[in-house]
Amino acid sequence: MIGAYGPEGHEWVDELCQVLKGNVDYAVDFIQKRFHGVEVARPEGTYMLFLDCTEWCAEHGKTIDKLQRAGMEVGVLWQDGRPFHGPCHIRMNLALPYSRVVEAFDRLDRYVFNA
C-alpha cells in the first residue's frame, strides 16, 4: 500500500486503473449488447460487477443457482449476489488480465446466456 500510494507507485496505480477501466468498459458493453434480460450498472469505486439476472432467469425458466452453476461449468467463477441483497444477482470480479475477461465473456455468451 505504501508503494502504491507513494510517489514511486503513482505510475503503477495509473496503469492499474487503466486496466480495470478497460475491463469494466468491455464487460458492461458486452452485457448490454449480448445478454438480453441481464441488467448491469457501471461500478463506482470497485472492480466488481453486480448483474441483475431476474428477467433473464424468468425468460429462460432458470433459477439463479442453475445460472451460477452453468457459468462455473464453463470455467467462469463468479459469486452469488444474494449475500449482497441481490435476490437474483451475480457478482463478477474484473481484476484480471483483459484477455481473461474476453475469454470469460466469450464462454458465457456461447455456453450460458445465448446457448
How would you describe the overall organization of this protein?
With 115 residues, the protein is α+β, with helices and mostly antiparallel strands. Helix content is 54%, strand content 12%. α2 (10-34) runs parallel beside α5 (98-113).
- Helix amount, in percent? 40-55%
Put simply, the count of helices is: 5
**Low-confidence stretches at least 5 residues in length (pLDDT < 50)?**
none
Mean pLDDT: 94
- Tell me, what's the shape? elongated
Calculate the terminal CA-CA distance, rounded to whole Å.
Answer: 43 Å
In N-to-C order, the SSE pattern is: HHEEHHEEH
Counted beta strands: 4
The radius of gyration over CA amounts to 15 Å
Task: Describe the largest sheet.
Answer: 4 strands, antiparallel
- Spatial strand order of the main sheet: 1-2-4-3
Give the helix/strand class: alpha+beta
Give the amount of beta strand, in percent. 5-15%
- Quaternary state reads single chain
List keywords for this structure.
elongated, 4-stranded antiparallel sheet, 115 residues, alpha+beta, 54% helix, 5 helices
